[in-house]
């Protein structure tokens, strides 16, 4: 899923209050009036949070996330989450946009080189033959590793120009 350009007056644009899974999403350019413009998790025991980009969100405190607990792997957010494969580098989108919430200038959230999210996700069984938000193959190349976020990086297919004399 892609969650972008939303505003809540309270806490957490994406709010997980019970056991659940958040996987292969991009949560960007959202805003909360109190805390946590991105992901708020109040359940300290059970949620699974993996392969997500949670970046460029705004709030008076905890811009991107506030998480009580759970299993967190292969996410890109700042600051980085505790857990295997989590990173905090800029995800490097095609167009990052600007601002937060209802006044945000939204971008294009496909990954581009040199994104640290490319080939850094966790492959899941459901991904075989699945498509991303842009209808691209979820794991590219097919024997590769999933990317973090809602979009799989696809190289530019313009080809090469060759001059022969």
Shape: globular
**Count of distinct strands:** 14
Helix content range of the residues, please? under 10%
Measured on Cα atoms, how large is the radius of gyration?
A: 17 Å
Strand content: 15-25%
Unreliable stretches (pLDDT < 50, length at least 5) are none
Element order: H for helix, E for strand: EEEEEEEEEEEEEE
Query: What is the topology, as strand order, of the major beta sheet?
Result: 1-5-9-12
Report how far the terminal alpha carbons are from each other: 50 Å
Mean pLDDT figure: 93
Please report the number of helical segments. Answer: 0
The largest sheet, given as strand count, sense and whether it forms a barrel, is: 4 strands, parallel
Describe the structure.
By secondary structure, the protein is mainly β. The chain is 0% helix and 24% strand. It is built from no helices and 14 strands. The protein has strands spanning 2-4, 7-8, 14-16, 21-23, 26-28, 31-32, 39-41, 48-50, 53-55, 65-67, 71-73, 76-77, 93-95, 108-111. Strands 1-5-9-12 form a four-stranded parallel β-sheet, with no helix packed on it. The chain is globular. The protein starts with a strand and ends in a 54-residue tail after the last strand.
């Amino acid at each position: 899923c892609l969650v972008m350009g939303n505003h809540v007056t309270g806490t957490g644009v994406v709010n997980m209050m019970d056991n659940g899974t958040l996987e292969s999403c991009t949560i960007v350019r959202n805003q909360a009036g109190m805390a946590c413009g991105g992901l708020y998790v109040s359940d300290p025991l059970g949620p699974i949070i993996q392969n997500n980009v949670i970046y460029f969100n705004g709030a008076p405190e905890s811009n991107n996330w506030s998480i009580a607990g759970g299993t967190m792997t292969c996410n890109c957010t700042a600051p980085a989450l505790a857990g295997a494969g989590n990173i905090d580098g800029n995800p490097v989108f095609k167009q990052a946009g600007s601002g937060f919430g209802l006044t945000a200038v939204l971008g294009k959230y496909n990954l581009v080189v040199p994104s640290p999210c490319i080939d850094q996700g966790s492959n899941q069984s459901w991904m075989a033959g699945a498509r991303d938000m842009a209808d691209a193959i979820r794991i590219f190349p097919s024997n590769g590793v999933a990317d973090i976020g809602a979009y799989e990086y696809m190289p530019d297919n313009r080809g090469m120009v060759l001059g022969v004399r």
